[in-house]
Amino acid sequence: MWNEKMATRAKCREIDPDALFVQGAAQNRAKLICRGCPVRTQCLAEALDGRIEFGVWGGMTERERRALLRRRKDVTSWHELLTSAERRYERERSGQEVVVAARS
Q1: Model pTM?
Q2: What is the pLDDT of residues 5-52, one digit of tens each?
Q3: Is 97 annotated to bind ligand?
Q4: Is 5 annotated in some ligand binding site?
Q5: Is residue 91 annotated as involved in ligand binding?
């Protein structure tokens, strides 16, 4: 599902790729790069569906992804699950904004 269009929108395109393939405490710094990335969900789905073993992808380390894969063996498409959840969240969030605006 990952494609060149998504890659051009990724926040990490502006940094040295090696910054995402680190160990220890450096992984927490690498995860900060993913915050607010417009393609974070798609990136994480790509790593989970592709069983990518190394690096920070979509704000998760390899250890975090392995743990998630072990807990959710039932998931057949992370892309489908994560993008569906993201759309649902956006709909709910936009609905709440309308309610808040109406109350003001």
Answers
A1: 0.84
A2: 888 999 999 999 999 999 999 999 999 999 999 999 999 999 999 999
A3: no
A4: no
A5: no
Q: How many residues does the chain have?
A: 104
For residue 81, which of 60, 95, 73 has the smallest C-alpha distance?
73
- What angle is formed at CA 61 by the lines to CA 58 and CA 65, rounded to 5 degrees? 80
Judge whether 75 is annotated as a binding position: no
What span, in angstroms and rounded, lies between the C-alpha atoms of 32 and 84? 24
Return the residue matching tokens 């417009």.
38
Asked whether the predicted pLDDT for residue 101 surpasses 70, the reply is: no
What Å distances lie between residue 62 and 14, 56, 94, CA to CA? 22, 7, 32
Residue 31 token pair: 């995860």
